[in-house]
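Task 17 of the worksheet. Students: predict the tertiary structure of the chain below and write it out as structure tokens. Keep your answer in the requested format; marks are given for formatting as well as content.
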Amino acid sequence: MELAKAIAVESDIENLITAKVGCENLVILNGGNAEIIVENGSLDDVSVVKIKEIAVKHTGMPVDNITIVEMEY
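Model answer:
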């Protein structure tokens, strides 16, 4: 049940990031931390704030537990 809930939250966050920031992304929730991987060139100050707001709202995690990185090719 917990795994299914985590997968649903990851999917919801991914969809909101795509809609609000306009970039491909992958969200991984693990042990009270969130790692959000976004496509290269999509991060700026505004998008980072939007992504963190989405993640905090949907996970309840503190901002310090959320990591955002760009994909490396």
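Marker's comment: Residues 12 and 70 are 19 Å apart (CA to CA). The longest strand covers residues 25-30.
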